[in-house]
Amino acid sequence: MTGKLILVRHGETEGNVAKILDTRLPGLPLTERGVAQAKTFGSTLARPPQRLFSSEALRARQTGGYIEEATGVPLEVLPDLQEVQLGDLEGANSSAAHVMFQDVYHRWHAGELEERVPGGETGREVLERYVPTLERLREDYLSDPEAGDIVLVSHGAAMRLVSRELTKVPRLFATNNHLDNTETIELLPVEGGWECTRWGRFTPPFGDDISPTGDDPMG
Q1: What residues contact 95, with CB distance under 8 A and at least 6 apart?
Q2: Per-residue pLDDT, 138
Q3: Over the range 42-62, which residues count as b (16 or more CB within 10 Å of their CB) and which as e?
Q4: Do 77 and 61 meet the contact criterion of CB atoms below 8 Å apart?
Q5: Which one of 32, 63, 83, 152 is least enclosed by Cβ atoms within 10 Å?
């Protein structure tokens, strides 16, 4: 069996603590707790990945840097993997802003990919910039049956949307199940696509009857 693509949500940031919609590059840094989370993630990997990547966001690069320190695998930064861009809601932390984003985000998971918050990306635009990079990583590093895992430090909302589209896990499961900082979605390349082998604390089979978790709007 070939290696997996392990998508890792970055460590905790100042924006996560304050529940700020922080999506524009470079974004806010990790907190001390976020640094500890990143170090722990790197030190507890069963084996070093064959490659280590991150998005361009500061929080992802910092998380990846601590994983690099723990594993010895050099971090490579890739474009087009940043968080869902929220336009006019950038920097907001009000309940109204969170509700507006979550309404649009839930619509994306229901297939309404042309929706957007004012000034932000559509779901389709997120997929069009993000998915091709994953497919290139698959072709370049996961085509060999003996290949090791790839670790990619990214962002919760983008990870959940992309992974649901690639694997067709149940819509309500993907909508409701936020990711804590440094939790993972693990994707196994299979004939014709990808199979999800882990989503945060859950493993298959994934059901629609999961209650919502987490209150971090970007988780």
Answers
A1: none
A2: 96
A3: beeeeebbbbbbbbebbbbbb
A4: yes
A5: 32
Looking at domain 5-83+126-199, which CATH architecture does it have? 3-Layer(aba) Sandwich (3.40)
**Per-10-residue mean pLDDT, the chain, length 219:** 92 95 96 98 96 98 98 98 98 95 95 97 98 97 92 97 95 91 97 95 84 73
Cα dihedral 78, 84, 89, 91 in deg (nearest 10)? -40
Tokens 């490659």, located at residue: 51
Report pLDDT for 97: 96
pLDDT at 207: 84
Domain range list for the chain: 5-83+126-199
Give me the catalytic one of 12, 83, 165, 186: 83
How many other C-beta atoms lie within 10 A of the C-beta of residue 124?
15
Report how far residue 193's alpha carbon sits from residue 128's, in angstroms, rounded to the nearest whole number.
16
Distance CA 185, CA 44 (A): 16
With left for phi above 0 and alpha for psi between -120 and 50, is residue 108 left, alpha or beta? alpha
What is the C-alpha separation between 71 and 109, in angstroms, rounded? 35
10 is catalytic: yes
Sheet containing strand 75-77, edge to edge, reads 75-77, 51-54, 150-154, 5-9, 184-190, 193-199
Check if 139 is active-site: no
Three-class SS of residue 177?
Answer: strand
Q: Where are the alpha helices (DSSP H) in the chain?
A: 14-18, 32-43, 58-71, 95-109, 123-141, 156-167, 171-176
